[in-house]
Amino acid sequence: MGMSAVEPPPEAFNFAAHLLGANAGRPGKTAFIDDAGAVTYEELDERARRFAAALKERGVKREERVLILMQDGADWPVAFLGAMLAGVVPVGVNTLLTADDLAYMLEHSRAQAVFVSGAVKPALKAALAKSDHEVHTVVVSRPAQPLDFGEVAFEDFVARGKPLMKPARTHADEPAFWLYSSGSTGRPKGTVHSHANPYWTTELYGKTILGLQESDVCFSAAKLFFAYGLGNALTFPLAVGATALLMAERPTPDAVFKRWRGGVAGTKPTVFFGAPTLYAGVLASKGLPAREDVALRLVSSAGEALPAEIGERFKRHFGVDIVDGIGSTEMLHIFISNRPDKVRYGSTGWPVPGYDIELRGEDGRGTPDGEPGDLYIHGPSAALMYWGARAKTRETFEGRWTRSGDKYIRNADGSFTYAGRSDDMLKVGGIWVSPFEVEATLVQHPSVLEAAVIGAPDADGLVKTKAYVVLKEGASADEGELQRFVKDRLAPYKYPRAIEFIAELPKTATGKIQRFKLREREADGG
User: Fold this and answer.
1) What is the per-residue pLDDT for 427?
2) What integer is the mean pLDDT of 295-314?
3) Is 235 left (phi over 0), alpha (psi -120 to 50) or beta?
4) Which residues pair with 175 in a beta bridge?
5) Cα–Cα distance between 477 and 374 in angstroms, integer?
C-alpha cells in the first residue's frame, strides 16, 4: 500500500510553522473556543510566536524539554506550537497524575520550564518538592491563587516576547514533542515523536479517512495530552482550518451534553471524539439529548474496542455511526479504522492507507484469518524511541515494525477484530479466551453498565474466567442470570465461573480498565 497520494514533508520541516502557515489565509476564523472565550487563527499565530520568543529569552534552548501540565484550553496549543517553533521540545503530560509520576517525568525529561494550570499547581508543587531536578521557569495558566515567588502568569509570559518571525530550522526527522505512554504496568515511557509524524497522521487519517472540513467544529472528550486527543483537537482541525472546542473539566456525560447542545459560545460541535466507556455512560444517562438537539455528523471512538451493541444503540438514537479505530501513543494516532461510509460493528475496521498490518503467532510467523495473533504495524508515524529506555524501545520498535501489545483476528473481509491485550489473554482448559469478548457480551445485558474479566485460579489452581460487574443505577441481576446470559451467546467454556458485583472498576486516567489491579485484588484474596 503506497503513500503515493500523500507527498512526504520536506527535509527541513517545522510542524508548528507548517500548521500556522496553512491558516495564514483565514486570520479572522475561530481556531479554538474554550471555557473563557475564542481565539482566532491570527491571534493563535501571534501568541505562539510570542511564546517562542519568550522561551528563548528565558534561556530555554533548542532541543531542551518543557513540560505542558495544563488542562485543555486555548493556552495549551499556544505552548505546544510555540515551543516547536522555537525548536524546543514540549512534553504533554496528564493532569491527573500523582506527584510521584510527575516527579519522575520532571527528572526523566529534565524539563527546563513547566507550564501548569492553576488548578493543577498543587500536584506540581508536591512533585517539585520530591524531585532533585530544578526547573528554572514555572508559568501558571489561569492561576487559582496568587502566584508564588518566581512564578509567571501565562498572559504575562506571552506578552513579553516580540513575535518570533523565523522559526527554528528543524528537520522532519528530529524530535518535535514527547508524550508519555500510560502503560498498564511500570513507569510511564517517554515516547519521542518527530516533526513529520503529526504531518502523516493529519494527512493519512484526519483528512483522508475522517474527511474533516474547514466548516467542522471538533470536540474531543480525550484530552490534548493523549495522542488521540492531540490529533482530534489540535493537529487535525488546524490542518483543515476548522474550529476546535476545548474543555478543561472531566468529560462526564452532562459536561459533554452541554457542549453538544451548543451551551458554550452557542457553537454546536459537528465532530465528536470519545472512548467506549464514555459512550456507554452517555447512552445510560437520563440527560441524553434528542437527535434534533445536536449537530453531530461524525463520531469517533478509540482507546479500547467498541462493543457492537453500543455503536448500534448510538446509531439508532442519533442517526450517526460511531467510527471505531485503534491507535497508540507509539503510532501517534489511528492505524486500523472503520470508515464514516463503511462501518462493521464488532470490528476495528480496515488498515488505514499508508499503514501495513501483520498478525503474528508465538513462532513469529503470520497467523491465518480467524485466529488471534500479535498485532504489528508498519507506518510513517511511528515514534523514534522511548527516551532513555533501550531495552523497552527494542521490544516495541523492531526495525520497520512496531509491536502494539494487542491481539487481533483478521476477518475474511480484511477487517480486524480485537481479541484483547497480549498480556490479558486467558487460557481456559487449554483454549485461548479473550476477556474482551466475554466483557462485550456481559454489557449487552440490560442491567450491566460495565464489566471486566480476568483469569482467577479455582480450587484446583486452574485458571477460570471471573467477571467483575458494575450494574446500572437501580438495576439488579444475579450471578446465575448473567452466567446463563453469556452461555446462550458464546461457546459454553467462555462463561465466567464467578461474578463479583463491584461499585466501580479501576481505570487509568484515559478510562481504560486496569485489569492488572483486579488481578492483584484477586491475588490478595479478593
Assistant:
1) 76
2) 93
3) alpha
4) 194
5) 36
CB 388 within 8 A of CB 394: no
Q: d(Cα 348, Cα 60) in Å, to the nearest integer?
A: 42
- Indicate the SS3 state at residue 448: strand
* DSSP sequence for 39-69: EEHHHHHHHHHHHHHHHHHTTPPTT-EEEEE
Has residue 216 got a pLDDT over 90?
A: yes
Mean predicted confidence (pLDDT) in 421-432: 76
**Per the confidence metrics, is the pTM higher than 0.90?**
no
Query: Hey, what amino acid is at 314?
Result: F
Task: Say what the pLDDT of residue 2 is.
Answer: 46
Contact 348, 417 (CB under 8 A): yes
Backbone angles phi, psi at 102, to 5 degrees: -65, -40
pLDDT attached to residue 1 = 44
User: What residue has cell string 476495528?
Assistant: 348
Q: What is the DSSP letter of 344?
A: -
Which amino acid does the sequence have at 167? P
Where b means 16+ CB within 10 Å and e means fewer, 300-312 reads: bbbbbbbbebbbe
CB crowding 420-435: b at 16 or more within 10 Å, else e: bbeebbbebeeeebbb
Determine the pLDDT at residue 452. Answer: 94
Going through 275-327 in order, the beta strands assigned E by DSSP cover 298-301, 322-327
Q: What is the dihedral of CA 211, 215, 217, 220, to 10 degrees?
A: 20
Which of 482 and 304 is assigned the larger pLDDT?
A: 482
Q: Which residue has the higher pLDDT, 386 or 362?
A: 386
